[in-house]
Specification:
Chain lengths: 554, 554
């Protein structure tokens, strides 16, 4: 098979103008970024109030493994297949961060014959959204240190809560000291850089309905505490306006196309552990007005992205999702069953059987949200018939629909059965049930999540967590929804607990506040917010010829 | 008078498509960035070999003062006026950096009725060129620290020559320690951030003819020395391809329009002390093919930007400039004559007279390049008739043309006389003479500059400079042209020497190598490469309403 970039390059793209035309987006409501990308004004939503929303389908996955699950590929393939069935569908995805593109992971624009295009641009600077977030983020930092230097706002320089940000995998910036060199350079203090997608501003961008909402959320960010311990916000810094100006274009949905020329929005990319993990809400809302079936994805496994989407995003914006697609692969299930990464291509019913409980717990968890669940087995050519049958039977026994997705190799053709099952499920009139209510006390919210989703027997709070809780309560932040930051490699808080862990102790190590995004982050484990490059980073494989043809991106 | 942003907003812009059409740029050779900005492929130049170049006019200024000289405003006004005289003209400018926009300086898209539009975009993220430079710059840093961690290339971590970069005024990042926190984060070392426009990659971007040239230049960057003292280059890091991929769009000229709908390229922005200080060469070359008169500007006073343009840029690219416009203001001349900043609006022939020697030395210096010099007095409404007459007479006595430029208040109408004089001067068949030759020994080059331009009696080298010279000679870098990094506030190396200093000692403190850009930097003073924010930064004045209208940018 050809590489992703070869397939991408051989695809015939349509001009984005004609795709925008088909969606009836008036010319004054979008700006072109080259011939194949358009930024649609979020204000166009105001013109569409009269329209009914389409159906919302959320794609999630079992617990991620190094074997890869293909959630983005499945989302794209499913949306293309719905279009093939003569229904309108738009897929909405997160945009890739440059750091990992240069690192080991490669891009994030789908794969094979289920990609969004132009993949080179999407995987590189795209429309500059992430750069805008970086700039806004670092403006706050520069202002905080300037105010410390000039002794404004009584900032406690030992309690600056706002790191700096860069869209790069750069481990050397994880722990740094800034402000050295004497009086002209300000006051020395410990600091750190996070990768831009881990910035609260990325979460805010993806949770803002419009410029006013954006400005309001930005103003609420808590950046530091003063010497009395009180929170200092962006409002106190007086720069919410400047930050919103820097983000004025980034809030607008990016319209691109799939490899089969169906519309796609690729927009925003917050983490699914320390943030909510789905694409920008302006894109989802716009897609719901512009199509009958919106396929969206959420980050990591269903215990992270899907939980946050259903418990936090949907209630916040009044979204009514219709179905959940749970992506699993034979390879990943074998890995969960104890097989080593190098042997995943060899048929092995034994490991597969041992790995099925991971699929089971995700199915059980997702059922609690009261929406139809459809399992999509994302097929690899090394999967045997027996292996696939084993999974199909297992899922059927749990009373859940299951389909084999071959869109990586076959495009929409490979996802028609999945699409039919999804469309049928959407016809049921299901209503989302959340695990917790916004009104629940903080500890109650956590308790419900821990027992229902992470499947622990009990919760423990460290003394740091108890201390932080006092701060949250003192300033009234404890009423915010909870976003749990925990490992993606297990449904538990321990990356080594594969499969279906239960009856263990879930530990809340600390809390962080994302007051602008509008949630409390519960830290259940160490979250790495700045990846590193490997010994041989992908950057060394990337090249361009004199005509601008790129190699090494995937 | 209205503010810049009010004037800009009330202007009627033409769609950039129609401007591109008038320039006969085929659609396949440009990409739109919204309705009013296009990126023109640098490869379009290959189609234009058959065309003769237009005349090249370089706009420079007297020694800068806090009073402002209006070089960009004059360049734009002059180009608009040439168009008004029924000749084709394109103005080529540097693009503003976001750091200063948020700091104290405001934007850099001209002013009053001589602006380039859309000023909001140009002053904000524009087409993302600077962000691309930041990313490429920091990829090198991340790779260097990764290779140090994994003990590749035998890099001496105490001799990393490559800082990190950010497009922000952030003094806290001037002196930092990175790599703290233990083994996983690499090895601690001293480091610093420069503002992106000070990155060698910005200079390289502006000096690269095409993607191959770009890749070649990138590969030559010296990033560190190994434990034997030998230079380590980007070629050794094996990432020239990845860097070129990150810069593949940034190399393409940005086409915008002036407030009178004439074409303008705004592209790249290297410093004029540690780098060469003019917009990207692809834009200048393209403008020369597309119009009869190209007006370009160079950074700071003529001792910095103009000298570098004539001695380095023109010979490197075989450019044949036709005339020099030297911008002066009554206010700045009074400041040079000893008047305080607060009193510059009061007529004061005495201070003005005392300041005239600064104008004189710039005129004398510029004459040495053998091109016609035209002085443009950039008029402010507080200038008195007597003051203007004094300057006109003074310039006439030096045998040089002089014109009063009122384009800030009147647009092209205010620069017609200037345009006529410039056009007339271009008719002479002048040939550029440089101060030094590329073949001269390094010390000879410096000696010629110091005596002819900086007007010192002698040069001294510190022991650091002598040491660095040995390194340059050992590895054959001493044959490169010299770019002098010195204060912009005096033609000398001392910011306190106003007016026309002479017979002093010029001190070369050290050398730096910009092997990718292709020059040696002579450091004659401390160059601040990372500005800071002021106590009340401009960011607090910037705001946006719900319809996207911005205030506080200028």
């Amino acid at each position: 098979m050809l590489t992703d970039i070869e397939i991408a390059r051989s695809a015939k793209m349509r001009k984005i103008v004609s795709i925008a035309n088909e969606l009836d987006i008036p010319e004054e409501y979008y700006n072109l970024h080259g011939k194949y990308i358009a930024k649609v004004s979020h204000q166009y939503l105001n013109e569409l109030d009269f329209k009914k929303d389409g159906k919302l389908i959320m794609v999630t996955a079992i617990t991620p493994t190094p074997a890869g699950e293909g959630k983005t590929t499945t989302s794209i393939g499913l949306s293309m297949a719905i279009n093939k069935l003569q229904k309108n569908s738009i897929v909405t995805l997160r945009e890739p961060s440059l750091g990992p593109v240069m690192g080991i992971k490669g891009g994030a624009a789908g794969g094979g014959y289920a990609q969004v295009l132009p993949m080179e641009d999407i995987n590189l600077h795209f429309t500059g959204d992430i750069h805008a977030v970086t700039t806004a983020h670092n403006l706050i930092s520069a202002i905080v240190d300037t105010y410390i230097k000039y002794d404004k706002l009584n900032i406690d320089s030992t309690r600056v809560l706002w790191p700096r940000a860069m869209d790069m995998n750069d481990r050397s910036l994880r722990d740094i000291v800034v402000g050295l060199g004497g009086k002209n350079n300000g006051y020395p203090r410990e600091d750190s850089f996070v990768i831009t997608t881990a910035s609260e501003i990325m979460a805010i961008l993806c949770l803002s309905k419009d410029l006013e909402d954006l400005k309001e959320r930005l103003s609420r960010i808590v950046v530091a505490r003063n010497k009395e311990g009180d929170p200092i916000t962006v409002k106190d810094l007086e720069i919410s306006g400047a930050l919103a100006v820097l983000l004025k274009d980034a809030i607008n949905p990016n319209l691109v196309q799939t490899i089969e020329n169906t519309p796609a929005f690729v927009h925003g990319g917050p983490f699914a552990n320390i943030a909510h993990g789905t694409n920008a809400i302006t894109s989802t809302k716009l897609a719901l007005k512009l199509s009958d079936y919106v396929v969206t994805e959420s980050g990591f496994g269903s215990d992270l992205g899907a939980e946050k989407f259903y418990d936090f995003v949907c209630p916040t914006f009044g979204l009514h999702p219709s179905a959940t697609v749970l992506v699993a692969t034979i390879r990943a299930l074998k890995y969960h069953g104890g097989q080593s990464k190098s042997a995943l291509s060899i048929p092995d019913l034994d490991s597969l059987k041992k790995g099925l409980p991971n699929l089971q717990v995700h199915i059980e968890n997702l059922k609690k949200f009261n929406l139809p669940v459809i399992v999509a087995i994302n097929k690899f050519e090394t999967d045997s018939q027996e292996e696939i049958k084993l999974v199909l039977d297992f899922v059927k026994d749990l009373g859940v629909e299951c389909s084999v997705n071959e869109s990586y190799e076959k495009g929409s053709e490979g996802a028609v059965d999945l699409a039919e099952k999804v469309i049928k499920s959407c016809e049921k009139d299901s209503e989302l049930k959340t695990i917790y209510n916004f009104e629940d006390e903080l500890e109650i919210k956590i308790d419900k999540l821990v027992k229902n989703i992470y499947r622990a027997g009990r919760v423990e709070y460290t003394s740091e967590a108890i201390q932080s809780m006092k701060f949250l309560k003192k300033y009234g932040y404890d009423k915010l929804p909870i976003i749990m930051a925990k490992t993606q490699y297990s449904i538990s808080d321990d990356p080594h607990k594969l499969g279906f862990p239960k009856d263990y102790t879930f530990t809340i190590r600390d809390f962080e506040l994302s007051a602008g995004a509008g949630f409390i982050v519960g830290l259940a484990g160490d979250m790495l917010r700045m990846p590193g490059l490997s010994k041989v980073p992908n950057a060394v494989n990337i090249d361009i010829d004199k005509n601008g043809n790129i190699i090494g991106l995937y």
